[in-house]
């Protein structure tokens, strides 16, 4: 099965070349993909933690989100 | 202000591609701008887009983002081996719909570090869609002669995604 391809656009010659990835490039792509998934999961986790902290503070203050937004606007 | 704003090169994908590279970018302009409209193969409503200049794979890309989605807004920053540059649509977003992004790269020939700005939206006829304004910095003093775009999680850019590279100068 052929490897995926990348597109190279030469701005000088206007040539557009579709080139099959090498096995090394495919492996690097997969490594980058896995690293990106980890980063995205960490970002989602941080975002969720921030939202939970915010909700806890609002509950302690007895405010709804709309009331908090009105205060901070 | 721009007096000259002209297309350097463009592509509308006729098949899926893992990366898109503009090479041999001419050194006759002052600034560059890239418009891209993308949909990628990730099984999600969206996928981040990232770039590298001149194949630089060092940890040399800083980004600060102001993002919003269907539920709120947040800011974050990153320092990585890629420059994050917006959101594109992915496979579970509204069919036949693409995210849209413009990046602007002033003084791309400068011997200083290169800044760039990003204005990006994913498009989705549902609750989850992303809007993002980003400020990026490539910590490298080389003139930019190549830009490569990647889907963040290694998925393909799907057919009909498009990338347009423009050159800008004030004369």
Task: Explain how this protein is built.
Chain A is an alpha+beta fold and 73 residues long. Chain A is built from 2 helices and 2 strands. Chain A has helices spanning 23-61, 65-72, and strands spanning 5-10, 16-20. Chain A has a two-stranded antiparallel sheet. The termini of chain A are far apart. The mean pLDDT of chain A is 89. Chain B is mainly beta and 171 residues long. Chain B is built from no helices and 12 strands. Chain B has strands at residues 4-12, 19-23, 31-38, 46-53, 61-68, 73-80, 83-89, 99-105, 114-121, 131-138, 147-151, 162-169. In chain B, the strands form 2 sheets. Chain B has an 8-stranded antiparallel β-sheet, with no helix packed on it. The radius of gyration of chain B is 15 Å and the shape is globular. The chains are: A alpha+beta (73), B mainly beta (171). At the A-B interface, strand 1 and helix 1 of A face strand 1 and strand 2 of B.
